[in-house]
Amino acid sequence: MAISPIPPLVERAICKLGNDLSLARRRRHISQTSLAERMGASLSTVRRMENGDVRVPIHFIARALHVLGEIHALERLLDTQNDDIGLALQDEQLPKRVRSKSRASGAL
Question: What is the pLDDT of residues 30-83, one digit of tens each?
Fold first, then answer.
């Protein structure tokens, strides 16, 4: 099975994430080597991640976010309470009216 090409929007988003991780690391005065050690990753993985390599597994991104004190950003990534599209689709399925159930004779 051939792997389909990565959409340009996906590539740009991952590249931006890599740049943002690099900037956050540098603002915290953490070297790539130190980040790699704290993540349990290799230096080359950190470099590839910061360069926007789409092949870096998400658990390394999660580990980097954790080290940088930003893991909550991943937790909020697709928060279902704020999923406007999902909520709108769900609302479309709501009935137009709700009728009360008829009571059986003698039932309270």
Answer: 999 999 999 999 999 999 999 999 999 999 999 999 999 999 999 988 888 888
3-state secondary structure 26-71: HHCCCCHHHHHHHHCCCHHHHHHHHCCCCCCCHHHHHHHHHHCCCH
| Closest to 31 in 3D by CA, of 19, 47, 17 | 47
CA 33 to chain centroid, in Å, comes to 25
> Which of 66, 55, 79 minimizes the C-alpha distance to 21?
66
41 closest CA partner among 12, 62, 24: 62
Q: Quote the DSSP letter at residue 12.
A: H
